């Protein structure tokens, strides 16, 4: 108990010192997980309920940023949130790009999604205990499925996925990575949804069933029966990073309505795809 309390104090202090520097922000991740949990079939729904920690009260979204909060305790996990490309290349190649700072292969968001998917596939198969903590596997997978859909989580190595590009978001000093993690989403919520995340989620859900209805099957599908296909999600992200996130932005750029309104559709789409694909993956894992 003491140890647990100490951990909480440490985590909370670290959260205050380093507010969300990576990953869609809290809202982006919560949106992805809310959409995903609403699309689970009965068996996946039951498995998720069993695996979630009790304090989550069967709400995956409430723990969707857990992986960001433990980065400072599980140092090994920080390389697993992204996969950047060298020399400003606009395509993703697993063998070239999926490694950590020390060059260790597979240590990137694509490798991590495969890793935690494989761990979860052991759910219910091992009568004694899985060798892995499947609660953590579920929380990591849910978080990384969000991250991989944030275009600048598959950005350029040279600028750390936009983290070193300083810009102004309207009048506020910001870096480009943070603009895509948080600012676009927050500005959309304030301007169009009365600052209610629930209304934003409903608007995306509505487009999933109407606007994007004919595309959703394609989003859910992977080639040759793979349980999940993060290579594809990463390839889409670096393309969107080049086409939308980096486009027209240089150090010191002032990003306002022109940038916000033209990029918001991409953010909406990526949040929707992240949610749909997390659900499809969990349905295949547990189904
Ligand atoms: C796979 O998961 C284990 C358990 O969390 C972790 O130790 C390892 O670093 C992970 N590797 C990758 C590439 O995700
Ligand atoms: C698995 O991980 C969760 C979340 O970190 C933790 O609360 C739980 O105690 C762990 N379970 C085991 C059996 O270690
Ligand atoms: C939903 O689709 C409409 C029509 O394309 C678009 O105007 C609106 O911005 C979309 N909203 C979201 C949240 O995707
Ligand atoms: C995919 O898996 C299903 C069910 O396991 C099987 O019936 C089907 O033949 C597989 N398709 C391919 C292309 O491997």
Automatic annotation (TrEMBL):
One of its GO terms (biological process) is DNA catabolic process. SUPFAM superfamilies: Phospholipase C/P1 nuclease (SSF48537). Keywords: Disulfide bond, Endonuclease, Glycoprotein, Hydrolase, Metal-binding, Nuclease, Signal. It comes from the Eukaryota. Gene3D superfamilies: P1 Nuclease. It catalyses: Endonucleolytic cleavage to 5'-phosphomononucleotide and 5'-phosphooligonucleotide end-products. Belongs to the nuclease type I family. One of its GO terms (molecular function) is single-stranded DNA endodeoxyribonuclease activity. Pfam families: S1-P1_nuclease. Monomer. It is an enzyme of class 3 (hydrolase). This is Aspergillus nuclease S1. Residues 1-23 form the signal peptide. The keyword Metal-binding applies. The gene is LOC107467450. Its EC number is 3.1.30.1.
């Amino acid at each position: 108990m003491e140890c647990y309390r100490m951990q909480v104090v440490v985590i909370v202090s670290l959260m205050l010192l380093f507010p969300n520097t990576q990953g869609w922000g809290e809202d982006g991740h919560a949106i992805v997980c809310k959409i995903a949990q609403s699309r689970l079939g009965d068996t996946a729904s039951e498995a998720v309920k069993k695996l979630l920690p009790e304090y989550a009260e069967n709400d995956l979204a409430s723990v969707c940023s857990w992986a960001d909060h433990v980065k400072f305790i599980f140092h090994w996990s920080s390389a697993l949130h992204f996969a950047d490309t060298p020399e400003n290349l606009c395509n993703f190649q697993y063998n070239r790009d999926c490694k950590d700072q020390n060059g260790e292969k597979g240590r990137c968001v694509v490798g991590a999604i495969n890793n935690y998917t494989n761990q979860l596939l052991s759910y219910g198969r091992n009568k004694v205990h899985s060798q892995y903590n499947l609660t953590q596997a579920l929380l990591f997978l849910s978080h990384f499925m969000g991250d991989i859909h944030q275009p600048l989580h598959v950005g350029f190595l040279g600028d750390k996925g936009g983290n070193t590009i300083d810009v102004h978001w309207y009048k506020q000093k910001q870096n480009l990575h943070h603009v895509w993690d948080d600012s676009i989403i927050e500005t959309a919520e304030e301007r169009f949804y009365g600052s209610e995340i629930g209304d934003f989620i409903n608007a995306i859900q509505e487009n999933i069933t109407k606007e994007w209805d004919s595309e959703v099957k394609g989003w859910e599908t992977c080639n040759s029966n793979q349980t999940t296909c993060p290579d594809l999600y990463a390839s889409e992200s670096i393309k969107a990073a080049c086409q939308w996130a980096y486009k027209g932005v240089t150090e010191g750029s002032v990003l306002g309505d022109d940038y916000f309104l033209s990029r918001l559709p991409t953010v909406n789409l990526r949040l929707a795809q992240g949610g749909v694909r997390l659900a499809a993956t969990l349905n295949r894992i547990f189904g």
